[in-house]
Design the sequence.
């Protein structure tokens, strides 16, 4: 049912493709038609490096439908090095790995969601993992 | 625009109403507001509701409720702005009467949450967040608030326990409200030891769901009869503002710009400042939201919301009483109805009908309803006499 919605977001979810505003040069993720910083038209593609840091985080114990198999999982607001903040799960956390605000993280592609029912929607997309030291 | 007064209010007790449907609840509140005003009907009805479509398989609530309350053939509209749908309905009714289009209007907020399993309700509520960029990452609404609270504690150095007075005050006041979901006081220990939902938010930071409806009847102020039992309660200000839908898209996630903008516009309309507000029914869906609202509306400096609570200034006897009937935390948070409960409670305060949690000499009261995690915020100010 919802598949076209996810199919449309592939470029952003797999490649962190956003925009750079040609007027004020702020970087935008996800892409938009109007730059929220200056109100100008935003059109130029910009691919983010995938590097960022944890702005905030928490743990989900009771997951929404479709996400149960991953629970408990850590969700974060990640501030990309180019400026925008996005919402993503953290992954590849070691057993005794302490997540901290300010911790450097990088983007990886993982499965986000699988539906148990007949529609079987799988969503792949970005998660972030600690930067290897 | 002409001046508008609220002459009737009605509400149902917030609880699990297994025997009652969405329209029965809405109808009870509407008919109570009409009876309170001694009126039979109104020219129009404005319905606030968020999740009727998924939770009750019922949309098109304008005609649905109008017909049920005997207003078949009247104008009727359903408004949805997530958790601020109640205040959105009130504002629409207000504009209709103030403009002269209608000579009377009813605003009703209603939510019937127990017709669907809890997990489906959680999914329905998460539709207020950004589906592509928040919800698909496996988020629920409580998690967005947990992310804000964690960052707030990090930036401003507060501990979890510093937020306890919000919950304790709400529950202490809820004891005296016969319509409250919870009517039991809580201790500091109960707050600190409550079960964790999403670090740092525990059960005592979060408001409970429930079934409920609340309504108000609006008419032009100059049509209010002089022999009324109560002082005339005028709508002194009404303002709404939006912000980015997703928390991560806000300029500063820890500052409720829409709360600031709608409050500033409201102060301007009423030519008042925060100092003139005798009580404030704010949107304490989570303790962090109470904190951020107090700051954005000018009652506390940035980062100092918890200080106001720790100093006791939010109690009915304090400088800015909040949650005087229990707030979202104890009165309950029937999503699309909540904004109307807040308004009804401000009017009860201005009528002097609040018994043990009555704010002394309450003349000016404010209600602020927050949709989503801060993306659609509506502020109203009421004045007695
Ligand atoms: Zn720009």
Sequence:
């Amino acid at each position: 049912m919802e598949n076209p919605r996810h199919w449309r977001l592939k470029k952003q979810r797999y490649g962190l493709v956003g925009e750079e505003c040609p007027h004020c040069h702020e970087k935008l993720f996800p892409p938009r038609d109007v730059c929220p910083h200056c109100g100008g038209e935003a059109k130029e593609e910009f691919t983010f490096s995938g590097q960022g840091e944890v702005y905030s985080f928490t743990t989900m114990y009771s997951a929404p439908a479709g996400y149960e198999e991953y629970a408990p999982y850590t969700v974060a607001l990640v501030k990309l090095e180019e400026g925008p903040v996005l919402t993503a799960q953290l992954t590849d956390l070691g057993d005794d790995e302490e997540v901290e605000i300010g911790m450097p993280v990088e983007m990886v592609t993982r499965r986000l969601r699988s539906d148990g029912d007949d529609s079987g929607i799988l969503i792949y997309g970005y998660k972030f993992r600690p930067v290897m030291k | 625009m002409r001046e508008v007064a609220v002459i009737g209010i009605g509400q149902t007790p917030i609880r699990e109403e297994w025997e009652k449907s969405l329209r029965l609840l809405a109808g009870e509140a509407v008919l109570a507001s009409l009876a309170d005003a001694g009126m039979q009907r109104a020219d129009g009805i404005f319905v606030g509701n968020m999740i009727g479509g998924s939770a009750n398989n019922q949309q098109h609530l304008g005609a649905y409720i109008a017909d049920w309350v005997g207003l078949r053939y009247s104008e009727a509209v359903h408004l949805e702005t997530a958790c601020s749908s109640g205040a959105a309905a009130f504002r629409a009714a207000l504009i209709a009467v103030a403009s002269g289009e209608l000579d009377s209007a009813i605003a009703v907020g209603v939510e019937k949450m127990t017709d669907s399993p809890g997990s489906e309700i959680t999914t329905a509520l998460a539709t207020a967040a950004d589906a592509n960029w928040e919800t698909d990452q496996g988020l629920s609404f409580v998690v967005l608030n947990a992310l804000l609270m964690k960052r707030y504690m990090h930036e401003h150095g507060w501990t979890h326990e510093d937020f306890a007075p919000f919950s304790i005050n709400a529950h202490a006041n809820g004891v005296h409200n016969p319509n409250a979901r919870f009517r039991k006081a809580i201790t500091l220990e109960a707050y600190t030891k409550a079960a964790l939902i999403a670090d740092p938010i525990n059960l005592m930071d979060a408001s409970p769901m429930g079934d409920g409806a609340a309504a108000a009847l609006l008419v032009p102020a100059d049509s209010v009869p002089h022999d009324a039992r109560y002082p005339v309660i005028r709508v002194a200000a009404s303002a709404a503002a939006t912000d980015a839908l997703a928390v991560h898209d806000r300029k500063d996630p820890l500052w409720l710009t829409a709360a600031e903008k709608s409050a500033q516009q409201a102060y301007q309309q009423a030519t008042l400042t925060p100092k003139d507000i005798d009580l404030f029914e704010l949107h304490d869906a989570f303790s962090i939201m109470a904190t951020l609202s107090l700051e954005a509306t000018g009652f506390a400096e940035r980062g100092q919301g918890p200080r106001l609570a720790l100093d006791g200034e939010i109690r009915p006897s304090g400088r800015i009483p909040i949650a005087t009937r229990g707030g979202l935390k104890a009165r309950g948070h029937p999503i699309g109805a909540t904004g109307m409960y807040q308004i009804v409670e401000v009017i009860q305060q201005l009528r002097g009908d609040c018994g043990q949690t009555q704010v002394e000499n309450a003349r000016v009261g404010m209600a602020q309803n927050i949709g989503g995690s801060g993306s659609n915020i509506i502020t109203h100010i009421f004045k007695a006499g």
Observations:
- Chain A is about 10% helix and 40% strand.
- Chain A has a mean pLDDT of 90.
